[in-house]
Fold each of these.
Amino acid sequence: MDRRKFMAGCLGLPLLAQAGEAQAQAGLSKIIFPFAAGAGGDTLCRLIAQEMAPTLQRTLVVENRTGGDGLIGIKAVKGASPDGSMVLVTTGPTMYLLPMVETTPSFDTAKDFMPVSLLARFEFAVAINPAIEAADFKGFVAWLKAHPDKTSFGVPSNGTIPHFMGSKLEKDLGIPLTRVPYRGSAPILNDIIGGHISFGIVTLADALPQHRAKGVRIIATSSAERSPFAPEVPTLKESGIDLVADAWYGMWLPAGSQLDFASKLGAAASAALAKPEVKEKLTAIGLIPVGSNADGLTRELAANTAFWQPIVKATGYKIEN
């Protein structure tokens, strides 16, 4: 490296640090959501940011930092100053699955992040193009067997619950499936509507608007019982697939953040989620508001890690990094 450029960079570091401190002191926090705008998780972020800002007396800005199967946003918060200027909201699975599948984990959830709150639960759905002649999930399986050249399916990104759900379906159904990773659910749904892929495994929250508009058709959900959001749709278990899977969104700060701020942030998030108008808006898109303290988020993370670890290991899937 050029020595003059190196020295210039070093001289700039104090200015960058001062800029970060100024931002934090000015009361600005960025909520980093590592997936595309327009989906259920993005809506969740924007709703609670609006409600939390007056309570915290801070300006909360939602920023979508997509890429790397969620890693771009996660690593941005991991490397951020623990001054409250950056907050991570992401799915639980990104926080427990990614460390399982990377050859060299980019982060350690327990060491690199401070838990704040569980936010909302959600289910997954198998969605197809409504033009496909299949009355139900079993009918769709028969259609796939009759059309082996049309077995491509979309997942929000690699290394996610939909990814591993797809692996289990491929094994259980005995049909070779071609997984296509996307950056979020919205482009998957667009490609199902456009006929570019036959089906997708996405969050029920993301698929519901298009399902109701008849742009796509949900033929199965991943919950243990029929979803209150789509009671007409059978579960995978009802359809003969021994699989129950749901997930959730959580909030974290960089490790080393002030406990007092983390506590206030979690309390503000839980209070926002308890508001009737927020509950109504979230349930309308298939999210179940929860809210918790840091301990609740930690327990949820541990339980999910224990459940999925053997399943992921059996697939042999790894991300080279």
Amino acid sequence: MSHIKPLIPLLVTAGILIGGNGLQATFISLRALQEGFSASTIGLVGTGYNIGFAVGCVYVTRIMRSIGHIRTFSALAAIASAASIAMVLLIVPPFWFLMRLVQGLCFAGLFAVVESWLNARVTNSNRARTLSIYRFVDLGSVTLAQYLIPSVGIDGFQLFAIISMALSLSLVPISFADRSSPGAPEDIRFDIKTLWNISPLATIGCIVVGLTNSVFRSLGPVYAKGIGLSVTEIATFMSVGIFAGIVLQYPLGVYSDRLDRRLIILISSLGSLAACLFLSSLAGSNEWRNFAGIFVFGAFCMPLYSLCSAHANDHAAKGQHALVSAGTLFFWSVGAIVGPLFASFMLDIFGPRVLFAYMAVVLFLFMVYTLQRMMVREGVPTERRSMRFRNLLRTSTFFNKLATPPSERDGQ
């Protein structure tokens, strides 16, 4: 613990940010429903966040290089806090879209600052321990934050104020961190064509993850509300899907290191597809069936991003792993922008059950494409792989660096 102690302020800050972000995603969807927003309008508001996040990923490194970590964090936390509380002052879709766009941009920068700072401070001896704690913080904060919604209620200004307070308070622990701010990070290059040339399957896979996982996070509350779940049951529904994401990460990752990774991607997609079909046709309005279905969905679908990233790294040449990290996050953002928008229009037309039917179609097409790629390209033998599977968060390109041991790094 003596090695971890200096990192505690950064980990606490990360917990506040991740929890606040997870709370906000669910709450905004439910509050928008209460305010009479249509599903397509809620999808558009969610798309605003993802657009901002994509832009933030591209430009945050330049800001950090220009003004440093702590100034970048302070400015973005203040802007995000103001945007959160402003949403209660003017409840109209165009303004909410703009505020969510601002929040997405800010959160991309805030996560990048924290993870860049952690990466600069972590050592070989405490890297694995730090990552384990970080994942525990991620899971715990998002899960617990969901239950603030039924505890406080979605009426009034209280939850807007709590989210704004959390963002403001995130400045406190990071202010007590090591006084020596880390050096300016290297610029992150987004080379879309290079990632496609390295692995078309990984590129499409990351888009598919954006088309499915982001839809669950943005429109899952709309689905749950539409089938008649209570606010507490909606919080549980979202928490179960998020929590399930860690259940199969390790076993799927281990087998992907031993076998053709595309086979594990195929199995993960098949499990996700089965869960979507169950939710869209058999779960009905029974809360326990829906909890079971979303658990299976989260267990199989959440690891897909890490599996696709690992597959891309299998084909990457020396010095290309940083490009893979940036590229996979970019293509996930593309899917996350398009997915909620398209799915929300379908919700308006066909009702809540179409949400998982839409995801089933996307996953089926991805399975067909995966099989096609397996027939035209040989897999990379295990002895020629330069990197093992890593459980990745879609928070910033710096998380990939944090999760990669120095022995596996090539130009990252």
Amino acid sequence: MARPRIKDVARHAGVSEKTVSNVINDYAHVSDRTRQVVREAIEHLGYRVNLAGRHLRKGRTGIIALVVPELDIPYFAELARHVIREAEERSLTVLIHQSGADRDHELAALAGFGSTFVDGIILSPLALTADDLRDRTGFPPTVLLGELLEEGADHVAIDNESAAREATRHLIGLGRRTILAVGGRDDSGLGTAQARTRGYRAALAEAGIAYDPAALLPVGSFRMPDGARAVAGALAQGARPDALLCLNDQLALGALRALHEHGVSVPGDVAVIGFDDVEGGRFSVPTLSTVAPDKAAVAKVAVQLLQHRIEEATAPDGAVSGVQAPQDRIVAHRLVLRESTQGHERR
């Protein structure tokens, strides 16, 4: 059977092809009765909108790219799910690319992969510098995620420094004084780890707790084995923390394993808190307290901003007036308290 076309829908509904097009594009001046008749005809005939043709007529492909460092890090997998859902509501298709936190891969993504098949890019960079981002002439519209901020680009993130300060304050409020930061980085970099470390140090200073550089436990990557190795190594060297601030939930889950293997009770001896609120932390033993970024909001704002920039970039000359300045959007986060910090205050 031939695929139904707009003229078939129009004939079945007893309206013009233009009216069918107006209903499909959700134009406001179509009466409710006509809209219902056309939609019933679309459903009856099984008509499907040719999204590719619609996008191409506007000078677009309808494809956006989401570029993340590693897809098997649960935070990025969960974020990708939200981005896909948000894009689908706008009839957009998402191409997902894993950069491996490699600068060349991130630069290639920033340049649109050397092609014109993506209309825009949502990029979570780890290896790029501000200089890399400064001149994007001829590149597709881009929205940045995370800490790396360039004045000429749209940017979406949570306030990582504030979030880490809140998490550390919570640990201090439990009477914990020897708090190790798993994955902490005390350098001048602009990354998420550095921002969270600054928040950790600020909370210590507020409480009058001396900062010890040895309290930062470096990691090779932000995965469970790295968290386990870092904590096991610190314990083997004689560290006796009463709390751990882990800079993501993967590190925290690894830390829980290391503490268990060393006979350290959580939260009785050591309270543990992570970042990202990934699903695994809700099923660990004990369940994991964490900083929960609003991942759905990050996705929604990023896709909205990108769609706006794509429309600006592909609009006919003079069709867009007063181009919007680049947006720096901070999305909400909250502290989720579970068993790994609950019920064991020290005074």
Amino acid sequence: MTTHGGFEPVFCTIVPPHVLDKLAQHEDPAVSGPARETLQRDAYERTHRRLTTVIGAPAVAEPTESDKPQRTIYDAKHKQDLPGKKVRAEGSEPGKDATVNRAYAGLGATFELYLNAFDRHSIDGEGLPLNASVHFDVNYDNAFWNGEQMVFGDGDGELFLDFTIPVDVIGHELTHGVTQYSANLTYFGQSGALNESISDVFGSLIKQYTLGQSAAEADWLIGAGLLAPRVSGVALRSMKAPGTAYDDAALGKDPQPATMDDFVKTGRDNGGVHINSGIPNHAFYLVADALGGHAWEKAGQIWYDVLTGGALKQDALFADFAKLTVAAAKTRFGDGGEELQAVTKAWEQVGVQIT
């Protein structure tokens, strides 16, 4: 395990705070009510996350480096106590609850991508058991990794549907765990945006791997299928075209920039970590698109090498990360290959200076 200066207490949710903040101000109680309750719950969980770094997290089963996942799914039964009632263990047959089955499958899909593409055994690299709780709280509009397990809300039905529907949401949140156990990027400013972007990158790769898609076939959307029918939008974010995922009266317009020309300076959302992640997201898409084929084989391998290689600092800026991807492309694929050219050109296109 690679660590840099100790453990960083990060609480990461798939729906950004700036989206929930806007919804909380809506005049329709059916919209504002769940958003306000979700914000309150997220604030509690964020505090709990910090406390676990002080008093220690509960003990988990001893990790074993295995080629098989160790999954356990719990039902919170619309309460806030975690983990809830155990409803499915590793190897058991699917039940009648589709949410339980999707969570189980999503944990497995994440495990498989990391194992088969990168020879990583679970999110910590040492076979960490994967636990998840579904049906968390009432009308809870989020999903999160709390440092110990995954938690999924059912959504409010008005704007958000069941958070187990998109497998990339599951992969995104579990990848925060991979980052936790590797580069441990500080969750603020550009390093925080990199933290979010890495989760989007590997969340998308997990979906592509599950569907057997090439870079050209992928939709490059994060959270497709999560938005309710009344919402004018297709997903939470677009890596191919940041800023176009939604434009809705309640949600507002997708604020993600694609290049440094539109970098957003803000004190909200930990310095805009869910907003400015659009820039490195787009860089990855450009690399994958240029190289073609399965994106996890070349572009994903370069990003993984940087995340786990030990040279990425906790407070890395976009330019720091970009330089390391160039170095990783050279090391893995050579000086004269298309991989190095694609990486260099992508960062240039999004306005991140490498030299």
